[in-house]
C-alpha cells in the first residue's frame, strides 16, 4: 500500500523565515534518501534540504522565493517503504587492481634491433605532458632516449593549445570581473579597453617560456628530439616523416606511445567557414565576437565561454545533456549555473544543434530542444564537444599494438600495451583526459621501461573546471556514490560563513567532503568557489593518505583562508563545528 511521508524542514538553529532559494524537485520526481529537495538560504549560510525518504514526490508545498520555518512540510513523498539509511556496504578507497610486475629484463631484444638511422633504449612518441615527462624520467634513469614529435615545439596540447593558454586568458577574465565587481564597493575603474595584440602576445609569451624550457631540459638530459610524424614499421622500428618527405628511422628496445588526442567534430557544421572555431582557434583570440555560440557545456566549452564573456561577447551555451559539466555533482554545478545564468545570453540544456548554415550575416544555428528557439544567428560558433584519441593514426598494427574502434589503446597497471615492450600513456589510453594523469602515467611507463618496479596506483585523479566560480572534485562524487550504492556521509561548509570568501566577494561557494560512515575515512571531495582547483589538492592528499575526518578537522588551517573550509567541512561532519550552527544528529 502507498505510504505517504511528509518531509519537513528540520531544526534551523533558531532561524525563522528562511528563504527558499531553489526547489529542486517537482511532483513525479523520484528521490532517494539524502537527495536535495530544495536549497535554503539565511544570512549566515545556505543549505540543501535532504530527503529523509525514498520514493516519488506527490506534492511540493514550498516555492522558490518563499520562506520556511522549522517543521513546515516541504514535500510529500509516496514511498513503498520508509527508508532511513542507505544500505550499501561500507567502502574503502580503491586500491590498484594491478600488482607491480617484475621489471623488463635489461638487454631484451637487443640483438634483434633492426638497422635504423638511430638506435635507442626508449623511444617516446609524442611530446605532450605525457611524452616529455616519460622521456625525461627515462633519461634520468640512464636510458638512451629519442623523443619524436610532429611539431617543432614540444609541450603537446596542454602547453600549446590547452591548459596553459586557456588559463592565461582565464586570469585576464578574472581580473576584469573582479575590477568590475569593485564598483559596487565604491571603487570604479570604468570599462576595460581591450587591445588584442598585446594580450595575444602576453599569452603566447607564457606558452613559449614553458615550451622553451622543455627544449632546454631535453638538451640537458641528452634526450634526442626528432621532429616528424611517427608511424610504426615493426615491433622495434618507427619512422618519423617530415613535411618535406624526408624521414628518420629509429630502432628501439622499448617504446612509449604518448600521442594524445584531437578535437572531436559533430556533423552538420561548416568547419571550413573561418567563423566556426574550435578550442585551438578560439585560443588564438583573433577577435571578440559580439554574439558567440558555444556548442558543448563541458569544461573546455565553459572555460572558453568564461573568457570570451569577460572580454565582451554575448555568450549562448548549448548542451545536449540535461545539465552542464557532466561528471561534477549537481549541487556544485548549480552554483556556477546561477552565476552564468545571470551573465550569459542563454544556456540551453537538453538541446541538440541540428545544423549550422553559413550566411552573409553570420552563422545560423538550428536547434532542437524544449527551451531553445528554432534558430538563431551568431557571429562565431565555437564547437567544444570533446576529444578523440590518436591511437588510430600511428600504424600501431605494424607493431602488433591493439587499438580499439575509438582509437584508445588499452594498458595494464604498468602502462604496458598488449605488446610487452611497448607502453602507452595519457589521453590515448582513456579518460579522464587530463595532463596530470598523463604525467603520472608517464613516470610509471618510463620506470618500468628502464627496468624498475612501478605501477599506477593513484587512488584519485582530481578534476578542475577553471570557470568562475571554479569547480573541483576528487575521488567519490555524491552522484557516483548514489548510483553505485556506496554508503557515505557528508560534511559540508558553505562559504557564506567564510570570512575570507566574504572578503573576496564570493560567498556562494561550498566545500563538501564525503566520508565512509564506518571508518570515517575521506572518500571524496567537491569544492565550488574561487581557488577550488588549488584547494582540492589537500583533499586529494587526504584521500591518498587514507585520512580520517579527525585528521582534517584537527589540522590547523591558517585563518582567514579558503583552505579553512576543508577543515570546517570535516568539523561539520564530526559535529565539532562552531563556525556554523548545525542541528545535532539524532
Ligand atoms: P597531448 O598533449 O595531446 O600530446 C600529444 C603529442 O603527440 C602532441 O604534441 C602531438 O603533436 C604528438 N603526436 C601525435 N601523433 C603523433 C605522431 N604520429 N607522431 C609524432 N607526434 C605525434 N588538462 C588538464 O589537466 N588541465 C587543464 O586545465 C586542461 N585544460 C585544457 C584546455 C583545453 C582547451 C584543452 C584542449 C585541453 C585541456 N586539458 C587540460 C587536457 C590536456 O591538454 C590533455 O589531457 C593533455 O595534453 C594530454 O597529454 P598527452 O601527453 O596525453 O597528449
Would you give an account of this structure?
The protein is α/β, with parallel strands linked by helices and 586 residues long. 26% of the residues lie in helices and 26% in strands. The protein contains 14 helices and 30 strands. Strands 9, 10, 11, 12, 13, 14 and 25 form a seven-stranded mixed β-sheet that branches. Strands 16-23-17-18-19 form a five-stranded parallel β-sheet. Strands 26-27-30-29-28 form a five-stranded antiparallel β-sheet, with helices on both faces. A hairpin with a 2-residue loop joins β20 and β21. α1 packs parallel to α9 and α3 runs antiparallel to α4. The longest helix has 25 residues, at 196-220. It is globular and about 80 Å long. The model is unreliable at 81-106 (pLDDT under 50). The structure holds flavin-adenine dinucleotide.
Q: Helical residue percent?
A: 25-40%
Cα-to-Cα separation, first versus last residue: 28 Å
The overall average pLDDT, rounded, is 91
Shape verdict: globular
The helix/strand class is alpha/beta
Summarize the structure.
This protein is an alpha/beta fold and 586 residues long. It contains 14 helices and 30 strands. A hairpin with a 5-residue loop joins strand 26 (463-465) and strand 27.
